[in-house]
Amino acid sequence: MASPDEMSPDNDLQKTLKFYNEGKPLFTRAVLEDLDRHLEKGENKVVIRDYLDNEHVYDLEIPDWCADSVDTVRIKYNGIETLTTLHPDENKVSWGTRTMMITYGSHYKYDNITVEKVRTAFERQWEAWKQSKTCKHLTQQLEKLTPNQVAAITKIVGFALGPVACLDVKFADGIGPSAANALTQHMALLTIAKILEQQNGGRKVKCYTQDPVNKGVGNESLKTLGITSLDDPKGFLEVDDKTLVVSIHPNVPVRQVIADLQYPAAMLWNTVEEPVKREWEQKIMDDGDVTWIFPYSTDPVSSRVVRMTEQYDQLPFDDADDWFGKLTWYVMKHRDA
Q: Domain SRR1-like: where (predicted)?
């Protein structure tokens, strides 16, 4: 039987850091494939091993204790910061050593939104996108890719590109800020695919996305545009060395998952900068209660992500219209060798 010291949060944290520094992946294809099989078969439970190889059993059906408030099963991915940042009050890591786990949530509900309404909004926003400086710069940057770099990309997988069906009745065309951002990010995906196809003799570049917020009418709308929506974790499993990954401000650690699973042919995502140690932020609520804000973003940069990007040529993305924020192109080196 393990001693209290061997079972302490601090001891688990040290083991986690040791294994991580030795190169043990946080996320593995085998675990994701097993989880995907269980979800596809509609099984009731799944066993997921944590970073220290302890087994945890999760319900793949919504449990009774939360059935009144949720309607879907979700996968939670915990990056290295989440596994090694002690909570200041509780003196423990919030999720222990669990790199992947099952949680429960609710789908976005869009009343009176149809595929036709989404397509109409898309066509209106498409005109603004085509005329934007950002779209022109995107085209110019893609033209700088070498023939071998272009040939290396046969598909695009987008992560967390936003809810295309989130139309806002307060706007005459339904295109509020949230819808504009989501629609434009998907337009960028289609634009990239079209340009790559033209540069590579018409060879088809397939487009996929993974984003639970597009469940239902959102996914149906994307299908009419030529984008195939994949349930989590199929998007991650689709990534191979012929893939361009596009990810913009996701709410999961996409970059850390990709760094462990597969180096793609290229990435367009939030600029990778050297990780900085951050501290919890204390916030006092209106009622006087004290809460703590986790110090890292939902898609933080780890040392492993930095090492991965060293294998790529880097080109800052010129977002003149501020559609996407600070992004960078990462294109695998030595494609001309």
A: 141-278
